[in-house]
Amino acid sequence: MGQITFANSYQQQGRGGFAYSPNYSYMYSGNRVTSVTEDKSAGDVWINRNETWDADDWKPGGDGYLTLLHEVGHALGLKHPFEGNHRVLTSLDSERYTVMSYTQATKTTLIEVQGNSGSYTGTSRRCVPAR
């Protein structure tokens, strides 16, 4: 039986969060398992308190929402697609296919420009492709 705990912590700027993967220790008698103990930090999800999150970040597609999904993936035992013995093809290592990737999907930046030809401002935001 496991448990996922969510909390905030102070982390370096630019880091959304981190999580501990499931981890267990086993006691044996011969080749028979006699007890299993879960690591106390296993499944903990920590969101960075130093980031400037706003309400829109926690809506589907927002940076906070995607960070939370990514970290829950780690808490469940998922790795990044470029780590470990079972890696995905480089062509599939993208947020288009998995929330565990750090590679932004192509054609996912929206630039909004306001003003006129003499004076204008622009903002960009990341769009997450439909899965």
Structure described in brief:
This protein has 131 residues and is mainly beta. It is built from 1 helix and 7 strands.
Structural class: mainly beta
Helix content: under 10%
Q: State the end-to-end distance.
A: 31 Å
SS summary, helix count: 1
CATH hierarchy class name of the largest domain? Alpha Beta
Q: Tell me which CATH architecture of the largest domain applies here.
A: 3-Layer(aba) Sandwich
Going across the biggest sheet, name each strand in turn: 1-5-2
Describe, in plain words, how this protein is organized in 3D.
This protein is mostly beta strands and 131 residues long. The protein has two domains: 1-78, Collagenase (Catalytic Domain) (3-Layer(aba) Sandwich); 79-131, no CATH class. 10% of the residues lie in helices and 31% in strands. The chain contains one helix and seven strands; from the N terminus they run βββββαββ. It has one helix at residues 63-75, and strands at 5-9, 17-19, 24-29, 32-38, 44-48, 109-115, 120-126. The strands form three sheets. Strands 1-5-2 form a three-stranded mixed sheet, covered by helices on one side. β3 (24-29) and β4 form a beta hairpin. It is elongated, with a radius of gyration of 20 Å. The mean pLDDT is 87.
